[in-house]
Amino acid sequence: MTWVTWRLQRTETAIAATLLVLLALLLVPTGLSMASTYHHDGLAACLSANPSNACGEKFNAFQMRFDTLLNLTNWFTLIPGLIGVTLAAAFVLDLEQGTHRLAWTQSISRRRWIAGKLALPVLAAVVSAAVMILLITWWRQPYVQLNGRLDTGTYDSEGIVAIGYTLFALGLALAIGVVWRRAAAALTIAFVGYVIARIFVDSWLRDHLISPLRATWNITQTSGNGLTQPAALYHGFVLAERISIRRGGQGAGAFDGSGKPGLPGKGSSLTYHVVYHPASHFWPMQLAETALFAGAAAVLIMFAAWWTHQRTV
Fold it and tell me: Angle at CA 242, nearest 5°, toward 236 and 246?
Protein backbone atom coordinates (compact mmCIF):
# COMPACT_ATOMS: atom_id res chain seq x y z
CA MET A 1 0.00 0.00 0.00
CA THR A 2 2.75 2.46 0.96
CA TRP A 3 4.75 1.62 -2.16
CA VAL A 4 1.74 2.09 -4.45
CA THR A 5 0.83 5.37 -2.76
CA TRP A 6 4.37 6.64 -3.22
CA ARG A 7 4.37 5.70 -6.92
CA LEU A 8 1.14 7.61 -7.48
CA GLN A 9 2.37 10.61 -5.45
CA ARG A 10 5.95 10.79 -6.67
CA THR A 11 5.32 13.13 -9.62
CA GLU A 12 3.69 15.77 -7.43
CA THR A 13 6.39 15.32 -4.78
CA ALA A 14 9.05 15.75 -7.46
CA ILE A 15 7.40 19.00 -8.60
CA ALA A 16 7.46 20.32 -5.03
CA ALA A 17 11.10 19.28 -4.68
CA THR A 18 11.94 21.02 -7.97
CA LEU A 19 10.41 24.27 -6.71
CA LEU A 20 12.61 24.06 -3.61
CA VAL A 21 15.73 23.33 -5.66
CA LEU A 22 15.06 26.35 -7.88
CA LEU A 23 14.53 28.42 -4.76
CA ALA A 24 17.86 27.25 -3.35
CA LEU A 25 19.66 28.04 -6.61
CA LEU A 26 18.44 31.63 -6.32
CA LEU A 27 18.89 32.10 -2.58
CA VAL A 28 22.24 30.48 -1.85
CA PRO A 29 24.51 32.65 -4.07
CA THR A 30 22.59 35.88 -3.39
CA GLY A 31 22.42 35.07 0.32
CA LEU A 32 26.19 34.66 0.48
CA SER A 33 26.60 38.00 -1.31
CA MET A 34 24.20 39.77 1.04
CA ALA A 35 25.85 38.33 4.15
CA SER A 36 29.29 39.35 2.84
CA THR A 37 28.12 42.93 2.24
CA TYR A 38 26.52 43.09 5.68
CA HIS A 39 29.77 42.10 7.40
CA HIS A 40 32.05 44.09 5.09
CA ASP A 41 30.11 47.33 5.70
CA GLY A 42 30.11 46.80 9.46
CA LEU A 43 26.32 46.97 9.71
CA ALA A 44 26.34 44.84 12.85
CA ALA A 45 27.59 47.93 14.70
CA CYS A 46 24.53 49.91 13.57
CA LEU A 47 21.89 47.85 15.32
CA SER A 48 20.09 50.39 17.46
CA ALA A 49 16.80 52.25 17.51
CA ASN A 50 18.48 55.52 16.54
CA PRO A 51 21.63 54.82 14.47
CA SER A 52 24.11 57.54 13.54
CA ASN A 53 24.02 59.34 10.20
CA ALA A 54 26.93 57.22 8.97
CA CYS A 55 25.03 54.04 9.85
CA GLY A 56 21.95 55.43 8.14
CA GLU A 57 23.91 55.92 4.94
CA LYS A 58 25.27 52.36 5.10
CA PHE A 59 21.81 51.04 5.73
CA ASN A 60 20.34 52.93 2.77
CA ALA A 61 23.13 51.69 0.50
CA PHE A 62 22.48 48.10 1.61
CA GLN A 63 18.75 48.50 0.98
CA MET A 64 19.28 49.98 -2.49
CA ARG A 65 21.71 47.24 -3.49
CA PHE A 66 19.40 44.38 -2.56
CA ASP A 67 16.02 46.06 -2.92
CA THR A 68 15.06 44.20 -6.11
CA LEU A 69 15.87 40.83 -4.57
CA LEU A 70 14.03 41.67 -1.37
CA ASN A 71 10.93 42.69 -3.32
CA LEU A 72 11.17 39.48 -5.35
CA THR A 73 11.26 37.30 -2.25
CA ASN A 74 8.02 38.90 -1.05
CA TRP A 75 6.32 36.91 -3.82
CA PHE A 76 7.65 33.67 -2.35
CA THR A 77 4.60 33.71 -0.11
CA LEU A 78 2.82 32.07 -3.09
CA ILE A 79 5.09 29.02 -2.94
CA PRO A 80 3.28 27.33 -0.02
CA GLY A 81 0.06 27.60 -2.00
CA LEU A 82 1.63 26.13 -5.12
CA ILE A 83 3.15 23.24 -3.18
CA GLY A 84 -0.07 22.54 -1.27
CA VAL A 85 -2.38 22.35 -4.29
CA THR A 86 0.20 20.36 -6.28
CA LEU A 87 0.46 17.70 -3.58
CA ALA A 88 -3.33 17.31 -3.59
CA ALA A 89 -3.38 16.42 -7.29
CA ALA A 90 -2.72 12.68 -6.96
CA PHE A 91 -5.67 12.11 -4.61
CA VAL A 92 -8.08 14.12 -6.76
CA LEU A 93 -6.89 12.48 -9.96
CA ASP A 94 -7.57 9.04 -8.47
CA LEU A 95 -11.19 10.05 -7.93
CA GLU A 96 -11.52 11.80 -11.27
CA GLN A 97 -10.17 8.84 -13.25
CA GLY A 98 -11.94 6.23 -11.13
CA THR A 99 -8.77 4.27 -10.30
CA HIS A 100 -9.77 4.29 -6.64
CA ARG A 101 -12.37 1.62 -7.44
CA LEU A 102 -9.65 -0.85 -8.36
CA ALA A 103 -7.94 -0.35 -5.02
CA TRP A 104 -11.24 -0.83 -3.19
CA THR A 105 -11.77 -4.21 -4.84
CA GLN A 106 -8.56 -5.46 -3.24
CA SER A 107 -8.07 -6.40 0.40
CA ILE A 108 -7.47 -2.77 1.40
CA SER A 109 -10.38 -1.09 3.17
CA ARG A 110 -11.61 2.34 2.16
CA ARG A 111 -10.48 3.78 5.46
CA ARG A 112 -6.95 2.44 5.13
CA TRP A 113 -6.70 3.58 1.51
CA ILE A 114 -7.86 7.09 2.39
CA ALA A 115 -5.51 7.33 5.39
CA GLY A 116 -2.52 6.22 3.34
CA LYS A 117 -3.35 8.47 0.40
CA LEU A 118 -3.70 11.53 2.65
CA ALA A 119 -0.81 10.90 5.04
CA LEU A 120 1.89 11.15 2.38
CA PRO A 121 0.90 14.57 0.94
CA VAL A 122 0.44 15.96 4.46
CA LEU A 123 3.94 14.81 5.42
CA ALA A 124 5.39 16.13 2.16
CA ALA A 125 3.67 19.49 2.73
CA VAL A 126 5.15 19.86 6.21
CA VAL A 127 8.66 18.88 5.09
CA SER A 128 8.54 21.14 2.01
CA ALA A 129 7.37 24.12 4.03
CA ALA A 130 10.05 23.52 6.68
CA VAL A 131 12.78 23.42 4.02
CA MET A 132 11.49 26.64 2.48
CA ILE A 133 11.42 28.35 5.89
CA LEU A 134 15.01 27.32 6.64
CA LEU A 135 16.25 28.58 3.26
CA ILE A 136 14.52 31.96 3.46
CA THR A 137 15.35 32.47 7.14
CA TRP A 138 19.04 31.95 6.39
CA TRP A 139 18.85 34.21 3.32
CA ARG A 140 17.06 37.07 5.07
CA GLN A 141 19.21 37.07 8.22
CA PRO A 142 21.16 40.29 7.43
CA TYR A 143 17.95 42.11 6.50
CA VAL A 144 16.18 40.86 9.64
CA GLN A 145 19.04 42.12 11.81
CA LEU A 146 18.39 45.61 10.46
CA ASN A 147 14.60 45.63 10.11
CA GLY A 148 13.17 42.92 12.34
CA ARG A 149 10.72 40.18 11.35
CA LEU A 150 7.32 41.86 11.51
CA ASP A 151 7.11 43.36 8.04
CA THR A 152 4.79 41.27 5.85
CA GLY A 153 7.41 39.93 3.43
CA THR A 154 9.61 38.58 6.22
CA TYR A 155 6.85 37.46 8.58
CA ASP A 156 5.15 35.30 5.94
CA SER A 157 8.31 33.29 5.24
CA GLU A 158 9.88 32.84 8.68
CA GLY A 159 8.86 31.22 11.94
CA ILE A 160 6.38 28.38 11.34
CA VAL A 161 3.42 30.05 9.69
CA ALA A 162 4.33 28.84 6.17
CA ILE A 163 3.65 25.28 7.36
CA GLY A 164 0.08 26.34 8.13
CA TYR A 165 -0.19 28.03 4.74
CA THR A 166 0.93 24.88 2.89
CA LEU A 167 -1.42 22.60 4.81
CA PHE A 168 -4.31 25.00 4.24
CA ALA A 169 -3.72 25.03 0.47
CA LEU A 170 -3.52 21.23 0.49
CA GLY A 171 -6.72 20.87 2.51
CA LEU A 172 -8.62 23.37 0.37
CA ALA A 173 -7.59 21.59 -2.85
CA LEU A 174 -8.59 18.21 -1.42
CA ALA A 175 -11.98 19.45 -0.17
CA ILE A 176 -12.86 21.04 -3.50
CA GLY A 177 -11.42 18.15 -5.48
CA VAL A 178 -13.33 15.33 -3.78
CA VAL A 179 -16.63 17.11 -4.42
CA TRP A 180 -15.91 18.37 -7.94
CA ARG A 181 -13.65 15.53 -9.18
CA ARG A 182 -12.09 17.75 -11.82
CA ALA A 183 -8.45 18.02 -10.84
CA ALA A 184 -7.35 20.94 -13.01
CA ALA A 185 -10.37 23.11 -12.15
CA ALA A 186 -10.35 22.16 -8.46
CA LEU A 187 -6.65 22.93 -8.00
CA THR A 188 -7.00 26.26 -9.80
CA ILE A 189 -9.97 27.33 -7.67
CA ALA A 190 -8.16 26.16 -4.53
CA PHE A 191 -5.09 28.26 -5.35
CA VAL A 192 -7.27 31.32 -5.98
CA GLY A 193 -9.01 30.66 -2.65
CA TYR A 194 -5.62 30.37 -0.95
CA VAL A 195 -4.55 33.76 -2.32
CA ILE A 196 -7.81 35.41 -1.23
CA ALA A 197 -7.52 33.95 2.28
CA ARG A 198 -3.91 35.12 2.55
CA ILE A 199 -4.79 38.65 1.43
CA PHE A 200 -7.59 38.83 4.00
CA VAL A 201 -5.36 37.63 6.82
CA ASP A 202 -2.34 39.73 5.81
CA SER A 203 -4.28 42.95 5.33
CA TRP A 204 -6.70 42.80 8.26
CA LEU A 205 -7.02 39.71 10.46
CA ARG A 206 -3.36 39.38 11.45
CA ASP A 207 -3.38 42.74 13.22
CA HIS A 208 -6.19 41.49 15.45
CA LEU A 209 -4.89 38.02 16.34
CA ILE A 210 -2.87 39.53 19.17
CA SER A 211 -3.94 42.75 20.85
CA PRO A 212 -1.57 45.56 19.82
CA LEU A 213 -0.01 47.94 22.30
CA ARG A 214 -0.76 51.65 22.58
CA ALA A 215 1.74 54.18 23.80
CA THR A 216 2.51 57.88 23.86
CA TRP A 217 5.93 59.55 23.91
CA ASN A 218 7.12 63.11 24.12
CA ILE A 219 9.32 63.75 21.09
CA THR A 220 12.83 65.08 21.46
CA GLN A 221 15.62 65.82 18.96
CA THR A 222 18.98 64.09 18.62
CA SER A 223 22.27 65.77 17.87
CA GLY A 224 22.20 64.97 14.17
CA ASN A 225 19.62 62.37 13.27
CA GLY A 226 16.27 64.15 13.38
CA LEU A 227 13.57 62.92 15.76
CA THR A 228 14.36 60.02 18.05
CA GLN A 229 12.55 56.70 17.67
CA PRO A 230 11.25 55.27 20.95
CA ALA A 231 13.18 52.12 21.86
CA ALA A 232 9.93 50.13 22.16
CA LEU A 233 9.35 50.55 18.41
CA TYR A 234 12.71 49.06 17.46
CA HIS A 235 11.97 46.21 15.02
CA GLY A 236 8.27 46.62 15.78
CA PHE A 237 5.37 47.11 13.38
CA VAL A 238 3.32 50.30 13.56
CA LEU A 239 -0.41 49.95 12.85
CA ALA A 240 -1.41 53.58 13.37
CA GLU A 241 0.36 56.73 14.43
CA ARG A 242 -0.16 60.43 14.81
CA ILE A 243 1.78 63.38 16.12
CA SER A 244 0.10 66.13 18.13
CA ILE A 245 1.56 69.55 18.85
CA ARG A 246 0.66 71.74 21.76
CA ARG A 247 1.71 75.35 21.59
CA GLY A 248 2.20 77.09 24.88
CA GLY A 249 -1.02 78.81 25.82
CA GLN A 250 -2.45 78.50 22.27
CA GLY A 251 -4.26 75.17 22.22
CA ALA A 252 -3.23 72.07 20.27
CA GLY A 253 -3.11 70.76 16.73
CA ALA A 254 -2.52 67.28 15.36
CA PHE A 255 -0.66 65.59 12.53
CA ASP A 256 -1.65 62.25 11.02
CA GLY A 257 1.88 60.86 10.86
CA SER A 258 2.21 61.20 7.07
CA GLY A 259 4.99 63.71 7.61
CA LYS A 260 7.08 64.78 10.58
CA PRO A 261 6.61 68.39 11.61
CA GLY A 262 9.50 70.49 12.77
CA LEU A 263 10.17 70.75 16.46
CA PRO A 264 7.83 73.12 18.30
CA GLY A 265 8.85 76.58 19.31
CA LYS A 266 9.44 77.81 22.82
CA GLY A 267 6.72 76.75 25.22
CA SER A 268 5.37 74.07 22.87
CA SER A 269 5.76 70.28 22.71
CA LEU A 270 5.29 67.38 20.30
CA THR A 271 3.70 64.10 21.38
CA TYR A 272 3.85 60.84 19.42
CA HIS A 273 0.79 58.54 19.67
CA VAL A 274 1.18 55.03 18.30
CA VAL A 275 -0.60 51.67 18.05
CA TYR A 276 1.95 48.95 17.38
CA HIS A 277 3.12 45.38 17.69
CA PRO A 278 6.53 45.15 19.40
CA ALA A 279 9.18 42.73 18.18
CA SER A 280 8.25 40.40 21.06
CA HIS A 281 4.85 39.76 19.43
CA PHE A 282 6.44 37.82 16.56
CA TRP A 283 6.07 34.34 18.07
CA PRO A 284 2.62 34.84 19.66
CA MET A 285 1.36 36.08 16.28
CA GLN A 286 3.06 33.19 14.47
CA LEU A 287 1.53 30.62 16.79
CA ALA A 288 -1.94 32.15 16.52
CA GLU A 289 -1.85 32.41 12.73
CA THR A 290 -0.36 28.94 12.29
CA ALA A 291 -3.09 27.50 14.51
CA LEU A 292 -5.70 29.31 12.42
CA PHE A 293 -4.48 27.95 9.07
CA ALA A 294 -3.52 24.50 10.36
CA GLY A 295 -6.89 24.19 12.12
CA ALA A 296 -8.74 25.14 8.93
CA ALA A 297 -6.56 22.63 7.04
CA ALA A 298 -7.43 19.84 9.50
CA VAL A 299 -11.15 20.51 9.06
CA LEU A 300 -10.83 20.54 5.26
CA ILE A 301 -8.75 17.34 5.15
CA MET A 302 -11.15 15.54 7.48
CA PHE A 303 -14.05 16.69 5.29
CA ALA A 304 -12.24 15.33 2.22
CA ALA A 305 -11.69 12.00 3.99
CA TRP A 306 -15.32 11.80 5.16
CA TRP A 307 -16.73 12.70 1.76
CA THR A 308 -14.53 10.15 0.02
CA HIS A 309 -15.47 7.44 2.51
CA GLN A 310 -19.20 8.14 2.63
CA ARG A 311 -20.17 9.73 -0.66
CA THR A 312 -17.73 8.35 -3.24
CA VAL A 313 -18.68 5.30 -5.29
Answer: 130
